[in-house]
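Box 3.1 — From sequence to structure: Thioredoxin family protein
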Amino acid sequence: MATFQQLFDIGQDFASFVRGGLASEQAAVDALVSKVGQPGAISDATLQRIDALTGRYHLLIVGEMWCPDCHVNITALQYLCKAQPRVSLAIITKGRAEDDLKKRLGLEKVSIPLVIVLNEQFEKLGLFIEQPRVVVEQWSEQTRADYRQGLYMDATLNDVLAVIATGER
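Predicted structure (token representation):
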């Protein structure tokens, strides 16, 4: 069984991951990249939390380009990595995760995106699974539409930052 670091080392960066998608999938991600970069897309409070990070962290992400949840959440996490160089990411396939992570993480199934938040030594701090907590808790057709348009990327960042905060102590 591969270690988290070995899986991270063979993972793709964001640009390579996006290039592996269909033109329509790439366009969807490009639109989200544009949206997350707009003023106000990420709250000032979230930006302050990102700036305040002192440790180094790795996000081992299980994702596929056909997955709309991956488009939204991995784009948000790429924003985090660009805004805070102390955080890096690598993306592996769902098939690889089924083989190497499902049992180790105690999951019945691998929902994507699955983000394994790791500290500098590649030790697991926690998980982000599929959608931000607020989206799951407030699920409605309107919430779903807003989420798919990238209006909850700040919530994704806050969920992941909450896990990272456990490593900042």
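Summary of the box: The chain is about 50% helix and 15% strand.
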